[in-house]
Amino acid sequence: MSHDATNWAIKQRGLKPTTKIVLWHLCDRFNPDYGCFPSQARLAHDCEISRSTLNDHLRQLEAGGLLRRVPRIHPVTKRQMPTRYILGFEPGFTPDDPTPCPETGHGDNDAENPFAGTEDRADEPSSVPEPCLNSGHGKDAGAVSDFDPDPCPEKGQSRVRNPDTNLVREPLSKPVKEEEDAQARDSDFDRFFDELLSALGFAANAMLPAWWQGWPARQHVCRWRDELGLSTDRIIETATETRRDHPNPPDGPKALDRFMERAAQRDALDAANSVKTKRSRKAQGTPPPSPDELAAFYAAKVNSEEYLPPSMISNAMCEAMLARRLVTSDRLRQRGVW
């Protein structure tokens, strides 16, 4: 690695975070004597991104004039070797030619590149062969992912997906709607917290005590709402009631826990009494069933085929059904209730 190279990468401004990480790791792999030629697998592993995403950021760096890529092909085996990355701080650096090649879409200015004859290691053969006649690969070809429809027979088709034609898009880390809702909730809670402090007797612009500063105090107030089930209006109402017996503001949210718990208990008791009152009113408004209705109800049970417990019908009810000729004695014996 080279400290001068990594310092140069850090000083570059206006880059996206991931793009700058790619540039930094390229500079981290730079050797002052031999240059920079990490494999794409190694570079993608260092940056913790996919190879297709890596090629996107490499194109952005190359378009921004911060590096130039020089592909290398072994002259004997015709296999692709790790790309040589010429970084912008190296002496004699010239950006890639923006004029695209008609075959591959990449620039072709090797003739103007002062590194054209020195991009390989000292112990490796020259890596700038003539281009393939079928696809044009071998002379300043682009990233591995930008493969031609008719690949070079020696190199084969790239195994990296083309991000420009990939139909799968990574979802947003946080949907915009949810983020806007979260911001709105934070704004509403800030207004509620200010109203609570005002109800407790704190001035609008006064310096708050340490017990009421920071997120611990706000989180404690949130527990009154989430755990005790108190509404924001109920919390402010209870806080206002505490000022009647305690003219000075409380030392912190914990001093109000007892009052908030009592308010929650009163609300629960009032809710239970309200339910009982509604049930009582409903029961009072409905008259009890008449003897004829009761006899008809139990007779329907006896005459049906559904399960009938023997203790469900009393002897008095059996006599009432027989008197009204709703059932027969044989049916009662058959059902086991007589």
From TrEMBL:
One Pfam family linked to the record: HTH_36
Highest rank taxon of the organism: Bacteria
Biased composition (Basic and acidic residues): 171-185
Gene3D superfamilies linked to this entry: Winged helix-like DNA-binding domain superfamily/Winged helix DNA-binding domain
Region (Disordered): 90-185, 268-292
Name of the molecule in the record: Helix-turn-helix domain-containing protein
Organism for this UniProt entry: Palleronia pontilimi
